Amino acid sequence: MGVSLSGLGSSGIDTGAVVDQLISLEAQPLTRMTHQKTIATTRSQALTDIESRLRNLKTSSDGLKDILLWNPVQSVASSNTDQFTAAAAAGVSPGAHSVTITQMARSAQDSYTWTPQPAASTLSINGVTVNVDANASIDDVTSMVNGNSSLGVYAVNAGGKLVLTSRATGAAASAVTAGATGGGLSAADPAKHKDGLNAQGTLDGVAFDQASNTISGSGSSPSAVNVPGLTITLKSVTTTTGTIDVGVPVVDRARVKAAMKDFVSNYNDTLDFINGKVNEKKQTNSDGAGNATKDTIDYSKGVLFGDSGLRDILSAMRLAVSNTVGTPGLPGTMNTLAQMGVSTGAASSTINADAVSGKLVFTDATFDAAMDSDPSSVQKMLGGQLGVTGFAQSFTALLTPLVQSSGVLDQRISSADSDASDLDTQMATLNSRLDDRTAALKKQFSAMEAAITRNNSQLQSLLSRLGTTNA
Hints:
Elements: H1 15-26, H2 28-64, H3 67-70, E1 76-78, E2 84-88, E3 95-103, E4 109-112, E5 121-125, E6 128-132, H4 138-146, E7 153-158, E8 161-166, E9 180-182, E10 199-203, E11 206-210, E12 214-215, E13 230-234, E14 242-246, H5 253-279, H6 308-322, E15 342-343, H7 353-357, E16 361-362, H8 364-373, H9 375-382, H10 391-403, H11 408-466
Antiparallel strand pairs: 1-14, 2-13, 3-10, 3-14, 4-8, 5-6, 5-9, 7-8, 10-11, 12-13, 15-16
Helix pairs in contact: 1-11, 2-5, 2-10, 2-11, 6-10, 8-9
């Protein structure tokens, strides 16, 4: 504490050490308050982490009842994805469609020689005039052309040649690249010219001839050959007739499985974390028999040991995933999560620590069997039908009061933060008082030192006059 005093009247008493000891005794509450603050801040952080995990779990639970998850989708398969692909942009009539491609649509292309001009010049491309700076290189012209979409062409520097390619495909685009003139630009090289071509072939035996390599199910293709709701992308000429198979609308089982596995993963993560905090014991420096076992104690350990509120949350979660779901109209074979493939695991002769702690596992085969047997009941039980309260709605209702703004956990976190803040204030007050107390003691001992020194001096003077010395 910076105390520096000499001995009282050179008596050999270390007055600085005396002050340090006095202040140290009065400062002992600081150590206790520091430990209490560590406990409060650690508790706040642990509760924040628990709240975060519960929110993630709630998001997973909400996902199980998302109507989009259960919205029927149609499978669309191409017999050869290297030659053509297909996608359902809307509802498509189920069935098979035949496709042949005899010619792909392509863009027109011309090649030019570019000579930089000593003065500013112009280029006319497809009737659009653009200015060209003096001494512009072929790369400058390429950049200028590509930055102006109104020209209708793309430009590249191909081995020192300016190659212009129409932005559109189809036979009608052939005239686009031929319209480039201007100082510095040679005539198009006829040997390098490529005409634009239309895509040609048949769809379900009906011929198409169109500028685009996309056959749109909206009926916007020039040939009006299309399948409503289906978009076909042509990729290469076919050697044999290919097929597109459109399935009937069904729930995407793989997406539902992924949502259920996400729920199981977040449930287990939350369970593990809360269990870890509830079962983490506080540290002591004694073995219970009065024997010291360590010099220091980690006060961040065991801040939520045996917490009854958290134990209640764990109990409620375990009951929610194991109880029968009371959705009206569900058969007895379709009213528990275990019947959907979510359980603590199959029965075993050996003790499984994860099963004992209540961790869940997802069994694909069980879920598939339930979906094969009664997909409507699976959807209803999990909460995927509008207006029906299933498992997801009930589980979300359980978590909402815990994780909502100003909810149970928010209040506990605020309380812990308030405790830490109060301790900060108390420690600041005590430190200020200790500083004042230190200054007062130093002043008192300094005065005593001066008085004793003065008295010793007077005594020596008196003895000197009497002709004696102070033995």
